[in-house]
Amino acid sequence: MQMAETVAGWSSCYQENRHVGAVIVKDKRIVATGYNGAPAGIKSCAERGECLRRVRNIASGTMQEVCYAVHAEQNAIIQAAKLGIPLDGAVMYVTHQPCVICTRMIINSGIKKVIYKNGYPDDFALQLFSESNVEIVKFSDL
Hints:
Oligomer: single chain
Strand content: 15-25%
Distance between the termini: 12 Å
């Protein structure tokens, strides 16, 4: 989890927003990392000097698609895919509970366990985890 927190510090999101980090581990080795930030070649909110979601007054946990950033979990999964690393049976450590979009990607990627530190207002994501074969555990409960 300490590594996920370090990776979160690389976030290019606006300073008042959540900085999220994700680390995927397989066979006791780190295979991919991700943090929330704009796609390659796109200006981040930090570079723009404002958060699009705050400008539009979008509530946390809603309308995740209205954001310049790719979520940390998504970036970690994308990095593994770009490098040709299969994630079947892997564990993801993430600083915040995944949203429903990330949850769907995690389930389909083959990751079998998610360990998160901080909550996130997305009960539907937790429902999907409970219906899947992916275990989700709060770090403080370990």
